[in-house]
């Protein structure tokens, strides 16, 4: 794809200053841009880069005053940042603009596919699956029997959805994510072996959720594992059976949530956090990376850290002392010596 | 699937009380059940729910005495819990009742497939692979050259088994699990680069093992990485080359086991645990989530916690003091001041 | 595959002692070898096994003197270890000797495939993809639009490469690894929801890199996530958007690197380590497993441990005191009592 400054100015309803025929073929930050890049300047503290950038075209705010010569062609708009975001999104839409049914793919005769969908080669759509409109099911993705997808759902290559799972509208699931595999449920026997507990529930993913690569979400034993509206999950996260994650909660990579735990709305959970099973985490909780949540959190909107986790500030204080522990131990030894002497003195003086 | 109370009563050899024509189409816990649900009551402390549940049919024990009006149709059996478990399993068997060879799939002419197997579309079965009877190889699963599967093996969609690996009977492997990829072995060179050490061993998985989604088990450098009979592995676990996991050991999600480590039988290892390489962990060991096992454990049947792990109770005590560290440090400062004063007094009095 | 001692002796330019017709069909360590195994003896401390091994053929050094009867056929060479390594590599090359285009596979008409490549069944090669010579793209692997692969690249089954990513020469990527999925970028809105930030950058993987199973490497928001020459990544690692990993750095399983963090050359990072975003880690840093790197490391070639990480030796000292914390607390209580008494005495004596 290649565009001229003039074409972009027209798209953004902006004013072109400089060569309207300057061409761009990629998007870049102003401080990293090379020739043929389109960039933007929004934050005044980056203004210096405007005079040195190799970008061919830069989008700037209408009210920007130039204080030195500029090589790049400028496009002036009301809000440079939001104009650039619009271009980013358009770029992405063009990049991901797949359509039609590629062959060979497997679509069971009882499956229903909505309008304007993409089904890639080697994708598998099983019996009784319902796919809404404008969905993209990439190559090697798999939807088992009776799966339901809403509208505007993207399953990137290699996504696996087990039977009976329900996925809402505008959901994006990245490659290698596994939705609806069996929960980890085994009943111990007297002889040390285990008997599998059948996992017959499902996973429900509500609207506007995004799920990262190789994340795993297990089906419920009975009932549903539920990912509420607007949740964003990063890569390599483990969500166990019967977990519920509240609306607009965001969780970073490699965190694990044990069975039946419920996380409230608008929580922010760092990477590599572990949560034990059968607890609740209050809405708005913020959990530092690598923490271990070992009991329910009932206070809303608080920050937590450590394993086991405590209030963030308390934990920071303990952490600082932890680093001084050898010094502390030495002080205690010295105190013991001094006191032993004082005692001798005191005994002698009696 | 829809059944009447009468049909279920017949299946379970139970007695129907109420409307024998009541229909059910799903299974649910008594406290969560909606209309058309089949539920059960086994634990007396849940009896209250019997009088309020929306379930259409409830399985109860023969000896249950009713103390209030019940809307649901009851089915009386000897043991309500085990009767319900039987139904769960039947339900699951029907749900996973796949058979036949779907097209297009790839089965090499030299591969042998047993009786009554399912091979899904886009599944790949390479040269010299041997598949036992009653196996299910779902779509997009892959068995490389010379892989052996026993009877009743399930490879869910997207499971990858590298060449020469051996899988026993009744093994279930969930989607995205990778069996037999190269161990992480590199020899350092003088100039800072690394040379790959060829990994020519394999992975052996014995009978009755279940492996979770996106878990990775590396092949041995030479010899075998071995998962013994009855082991249950959760999702996103890392098992490095030449590891051996003893029979009936259970490991929770996101745990990592470094190269050549041997874990004994009947161990229970929590989530996000890390084990260093070349150690042994005694049979029956129980390891708390997030622990780090940095040396061999020789005592059997003990509980461990912490990173580095110590005896569970010792670690709990240290954890409690850890949270009081700032307080402790303050105490020490105060003691220092008091002693400094006492010393002055003592010096003066001499 | 089966070879005689004579054939192997010829391959290695060695001298056969014993039965030249002894056959071998596998490679094994001398202490674990069974019949028909080929083994080697290099380290003198393993010499005892030479007299008891079940191996049919053993490669030994020219200068080895035998001190007891040996059942196996020996092959004498200049350097037994390097001769065996040569065989390991040959064995592996034969095992992985795939060639040709299997059907059904998907190769877009605009894709370019070099000479002597393998494309497995159900592999997908999208529009404008460029594949170099001697590449192996296994079944169910996926290369999206405009991906570039150098020469001698292996994508094992199920590897997914998103659009625009660039992969150098001699790169090995193991099954289930995801290259170029969206970075985890969301802009918070006033009402608690999030808006996705388009991720339009790519991933660049330089020459001689190996990437483990189910590892995820996200594309940059803008610009590139970069894995430099010679980097070795283990399984289940998370590499976030805009990260850069320096040449010949080695990272163990389940480690996570947050967005925009730069790791220097020749670093060695253990398993389950977490690194926060927007920091730099100096070249040659060695980080103990399970550490948490929460700020930039500017000193080169140092060892680090703990979460938050400190100098390795400092952390070891704190760890030791941590285990004695209950004892320490007791000491402080005792000191307090003694001092209270001393104070009484001192008060009385004044």
Account of the 3D structure:
- By secondary structure, chain A is an alpha/beta fold.
- Chain A has 3 domains: 3-95, Udp-n-acetylmuramoylalanyl-d-glutamate--2,6- Diaminopimelate Ligase, Chain: A, domain 1; 159-308, UDP N-Acetylglucosamine Acyltransferase, domain 1 (3 Solenoid), CATH 2.160.10.10; 321-350.
- In chain A, 19% of the residues lie in helices and 29% in strands.
- Chain A contains 5 helices and 40 strands.
- In chain A, the strands form 6 sheets. A 12-stranded mixed sheet of chain A has the order 8-11-14-17-20-25-28-31-34-37-39-40, covered by helices on one side. Chain A has a 10-stranded parallel sheet with strand order 9-12-15-18-21-26-29-32-35-38, with no helix packed on it. In chain A, strands 10-13-16-19-24-27-30-33-36 form a 9-stranded parallel sheet, with no helix packed on it.
- The longest helix of chain A is centred in the C-terminal third of the chain and has 25 residues, at 325-349.
- Chain A is flat, with a radius of gyration of 29 Å.
- At the A-B interface, helix 4 and helix 5 of A face helix 3, helix 4 and helix 5 of B.
List its salient traits.
homotrimer, 350 residues, alpha/beta, Udp-n-acetylmuramoylalanyl-d-glutamate--2,6- Diaminopimelate Ligase, Chain: A, domain 1, UDP N-Acetylglucosamine Acyltransferase, domain 1, ten-stranded parallel β-sheet, 5 helices, 29% strand, flat
